[in-house]
């Protein structure tokens, strides 16, 4: 499972931070950061989701009010949103 985070879409509500510890509050930008991620295009970050964090990652994506977080299965199919 992979998570994709679009920093440009993020509005800094930080609900994702409360749901999964891979998201961190960045006070200098007013947006969240996705730890241990790789920037795959300008402002879009991707990382693998550990098996024991899949539920937390899904909750983080579901709580994002602007859908800045997407979850994909191992086949590349989008699960959330």
UniProtKB/TrEMBL annotation:
Keywords: Electron transport, Iron, Iron-sulfur, Metal-binding, Transport. GO terms for molecular function: iron-sulfur cluster binding; metal ion binding. It comes from the Archaea. InterPro entries: Fe-S_cluster_ET. The keyword Iron applies. It holds the Pfam family Fer4_15. This is Ferredoxin.
């Amino acid at each position: 499972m992979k998570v994709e985070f679009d920093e440009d879409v993020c509005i800094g509500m930080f609900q994702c931070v409360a749901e999964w510890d891979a998201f961190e509050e960045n006070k200098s930008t007013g947006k969240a950061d996705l730890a241990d991620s790789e920037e795959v295009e300008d402002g879009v970050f991707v990382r693998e989701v550990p098996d024991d964090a899949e539920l937390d990652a899904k909750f983080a994506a579901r709580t994002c009010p602007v859908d800045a977080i997407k979850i994909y299965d191992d086949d590349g199919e989008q699960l959330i949103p």
